[in-house]
Predict the structure.
Amino acid sequence: MKALNGNLTKNGLTVEHNHNGCRHNGAELELIENIGDNHHFTNINTPLRKDAFDLDEDTKIDLIEEHFAEIMSIMGLDLSDDSLKGTPRRVAKMYIKEIFSGLNPLNKPEITLFDNKYGYHEMLIEKDITVHSNCEHHFVPIIGRAHIAYIPRKKVIGLSKINRLVQYYSKRPQVQERLTVQIANELRKALQTPDVAVIIEADHSCVMMRGVQDGNSSTITTQYCGQFENADIKSEFLRLLGR
Ligand SMILES: [Zn+2]
């Protein structure tokens, strides 16, 4: 196993680590803590490297397995123990195939649209969609629900596709605000209508388990687009949600 900083070669592919060896000065350390605790984010797009998908998934799993084993041993865990032995492999597979599978555009759900044959032009709401995501600042779960509404024009969407889109964007290291906007933008594009609203309410493990350790607070984010910016339509949406 190579050192954590420096280049790592696997199956002939080189992954460059632009890491400075983790020696941060006082100001940098303070900034790292502040960004995490304030859940500050800088970009509506998930920040990805240009070469994000140059490595295939199997290679990524092998590399993460090696590095996660190193993290566990640094913490002092005995990886020869039967219970811990397989953990680095399990974590690596879970990251790539499950909880962060939404990073890979190949996993984006195919959206099928249908003609709006019934001429339904009222609001349609899909509520209580399960959100399982992870905070990009602490890599611990964000668990919540999404409520989505749109006003159909010429096309309608298969309802389960809305859930799948929510899942796809959730399965990334995320910030709740970004997740909300990414889902709204995708739906506006897919449904060819600006009239979309997204509400997400979620509990953040990083707020509950560490830092301020508040197990009672939750976070609500909203994105109202098109007709949903109109106060009457917005309150109709909230009324139907039981707010
Ligand atoms: Zn966090």
Notes: The chain has two domains: 8-99, 113-240.
